[in-house]
Amino acid sequence: MSGPAPTPIAPILVVAATAFELAPLVERLNGPESSDTGWTEAVRGRFAGLEVVAQALGVGKARTAAGLAWSVRAHRPAAILQVGVGGAYLGSFLSVGLTMLADADLELDLGVAGDDGWADFEGLRVPLLPARPGERAAPDLAAPDRAVPTDARWTGLLASASGLPRGRFATLDAVTADVERGAAMQRRFDVSIESMEGAAAAAVAARLGVPFAELRAVSNVVGERDRARWDLRGAIRASTDAAAAALGGVADDPTWNEIVRDTAESGFMTGW
Questions:
Q1: E strand intervals along 89-155
Q2: Which CATH code is given to the segment(s) 12-113+144-260?
Q3: What pTM, to 2 d.p., does this model score?
């Protein structure tokens, strides 16, 4: 008589907008196996004593939010790491090739735009998220300025393992096309790196109760449209190296076991 099936190992889900940003990390996985999740292809393998699933979700907030929810249901991860590239805001003192972890990600284009400028969505007094059945109000997943925090413990573990700096990121569906406008946004919101997905992923992960961290390398200055001044390949290498260094120190850290235990005990992995 055969015994019960072994309990699946909860992986780390590593996501990016494009397969291009993930490819160098996928190449480092041991025993990679591909699967079709019904959203996009996912690759599962081993890295530094960890079970890892890598999946590209698509560009922009809508594709990332839908794809991450789909992927979380398919893989039941213990934690999520978003990787990729982004633009550095003038005034953040980041240059091309540098890498940073996010403490929070601001949904920068969620607001009210008019002839007199931009105002935060908070002024409309419309809840961003409906409450669940039995809740009096939806949980507050963002600060008043729409900054969605990453998971402090998971981000701290990756920062300790890699030595990476930390800061606030910003997410927009349309990239900022003017350097001076980017500099003004940096001064107003104290943001360092701009992308098109981070805040959406952070909000989905928070709602599902899965620890989330975000790591990006700088490929260009925000607002610089001359692609000759960009370094996408170099930034992807930097992002991959930083992610590998961060993940390389996870398996042997007691904090990782706590994260896996707490995610499992939250009921999330068996609740869908």
A1: 99-107, 111-114, 117-120, 147-149
A2: 3.40.50.1580
A3: 0.90
